[in-house]
Write a structure and sequence with these properties.
alpha/beta, globular, 9 helices, 10 strands, 37% helix, six-stranded mixed β-sheet
């Protein structure tokens, strides 16, 4: 039996006067891929930032529990040390930082020795030639797809227990998309839990379970194929919120 890795209970978040998360509630198991899908502006990325504890993303109500311990008050670096990480929708650029230096940070964060072998192996796993890229800078000279694959290589070296993938297929090429699918399976098989945040029903095929977000709360959970069909039928363009909730309740 799988044990709960992440629990989110009645989570509420207001930024200024806008309520972005409105009673968000779900759980994620070890070795499970749980997808959250919804249209732009429904609160998906806000949830990712809240889970990681970014500035201004502190819930006013509710609980976030990781491996049985509440972490609402932990700083972002403390959450990372516990084994949580976020892969950004738009991978960051690091002026003056080489791919070698960027990847080495992943090993150092786990207290592991940095070796050329480990760096090369991680890059090879994401179809990046280490001889061509290790000494390149992680900046605008790399495409979005290249930076996303290098970010995945960093995750391989960090091997977090919980990986939050925020729109992983956004702005990537076909090679990077295939790498993302491979990495989802790689981390799942190694026991990591994956929270897959997306607005693309195609990504749901990689999930074990899926849920639909509307107006900052989960209104429907089930098989990825059922959620995908519902999303296509009712959320594009989105029907009025009350009509959707009435249909779900019926």
């Amino acid at each position: 039996m799988m044990s709960k890795l992440l629990e989110v209970k009645d989570l509420h978040l207001k930024i200024e006067d806008a309520e972005i998360l409105n009673g968000m509630e779900f759980s994620l198991e070890k070795g499970e891929v749980f997808a959250l899908i919804g249209p732009n502006g429904c609160g998906k990325s806000t949830l990712a930032y809240t889970l990681m504890g970014l500035n201004n993303y502190h819930p006013q109500k509710g609980k976030m529990i990781f491996k049985g311990e509440e972490f609402n008050e932990l700083a972002i670096n403390e959450r990372a040390k516990k084994g949580m990480t976020l892969a950004w929708q738009e991978p960051a650029r690091y002026q003056g930082v080489t791919v070698r230096e960027f990847l080495a940070l992943g090993l150092k964060s786990k207290g592991e020795e940095v070796t050329e072998e480990k760096l090369k192996d991680a890059l090879n796993k994401v179809a990046i030639n280490p001889y061509q890229y290790l000494n390149r800078f992680v900046d605008k000279s790399l495409s979005g797809g290249e930076r996303k694959r290098i970010e995945l290589a960093s995750l391989i070296l960090m091997h977090p227990e919980l990986i939050i993938l925020d729109e992983p297929d956004s702005g990537v090429d076909v090679v990077a998309l295939n790498n993302i699918a491979d990495m989802i399976n790689y981390f799942k098989n190694s026991g990591s839990g994956i929270l897959l945040i997306t607005h693309s029903e195609e990504m749901l095929e990689y999930a074990d379970r899926a849920a639909l977000i509307c107006d900052g709360e989960i209104i429907r959970q089930g098989k990825p194929s059922d959620i995908s069909e519902y999303f296509k039928s009712f959320c594009g363009p989105c029907v009025k919120e009350e009509e959707c909730k009435t249909e779900v309740a019926s």
